[in-house]
Amino acid sequence: MDSEKTSRQVLKGIPSSHDGMSSAPRKKFKKPGDQTVDIAEIAEGVKSGSRLFLGKAITLLESLNPHHKKQGQELLNQLLPLTGNSIRIGITGVPGAGKSTFIETFGEMLTALGHRVAVLAIDPSSSLTGGSILGDKTRMEQLARNPNAFIRPSPTAGTLGGVHKKTRETMLLCEAAGYDIILVETVGVGQSETLVRGMVDMFLLLVLTGAGDELQGMKKGILELADAIIVHKADSENARLAKKTVAEYKSMLHFLQPATDGWKTQALAASSLEKTGIPEIWDLVQQFEQNVQESGNWKKRRQTQTKDWFRSMITDQLHSRFFEDPAKRSQVKELEQQVLEGELTVSQAISFLFE
């Protein structure tokens, strides 16, 4: 097909490095640490496509300062009409599958085709500092220099499944800044896959060649989340083995429930090193979008995701407000001690707590 030929030609023509940065305006503005953040200025900067302003807007949203939280939501509300016009792709994989290498190669090809790509890399947080451990900009140096790409390592900050609570809102800000393809890389710790599946349109699972033991050890639930399985590092002596692995996955997929209604989960091989199979993955993404749009499931999935987000935020807010009450915090400690000493059952303590 023409698009396949074009993407292949573009991929081969990608230079080894990119010079220059975004031409978007680099205006001076107040830092989010300042209580007098100019929301209108940041909004205009995001709309102009400035990576600098986009980064500051995300920092404002992630702030734990109550005043900044309010300002962040005001900013998001101003930008909301510009959101929703991207393809959101979740990417996960077994350890060593080469997620970052794949994302960099895939992202480079997409930007060369004229797209703007945002990468939200969910980093595990240090249990000591709460900071991001992996530092994805150091793992995707070439893509980080690309003026049409934006990479945001986002620490998990201890949230369930390793997905930062603000990832959904960050996606909206990226869309408002003109990024039409958003790639969300998960930690790959189990629960994070389920949560990311609930915020993207398409979910890719990267695996390695030689499926044998891997197929036996991989959880069925993870496979059922995937819209496509990419057998990665299918290069050199692995190329022949990769074809066999793809066949094994295709055989297995016949017995699994598809992740998306009306779409049959696909399996294919790719090599980021040799840049083979990458254009076919983009073709598959476009085919997926067309198929799901025509069936009406695209809009339905987005609405379901928004409803789930709304309800999860209710839970977060209830939890936050509960523990903000000094009297409740004190009561929790007292009841907790009574439970540990065997004076109360857990159910009794909860009943006392909510009387």
TrEMBL record:
Gene Ontology molecular functions: hydrolase activity
EC number: 3.6.5.-
Keyword set, alphabetical order: Hydrolase
Residue span of region Disordered: 1-33
The keyword Secreted is assigned to this record: no
Tagged with keyword ATP-binding: no
InterPro entries linked: GTPase_ArgK (IPR005129), P-loop_NTPase (IPR027417)
Entry-linked SUPFAM superfamilies: P-loop containing nucleoside triphosphate hydrolases
Protein family: Belongs to the SIMIBI class G3E GTPase family. ArgK/MeaB subfamily.
The protein's name in its UniProt record: Methylmalonyl Co-A mutase-associated GTPase MeaB
Taxonomic source organism: Planococcus shixiaomingii
Gene giving rise to this polypeptide: meaB
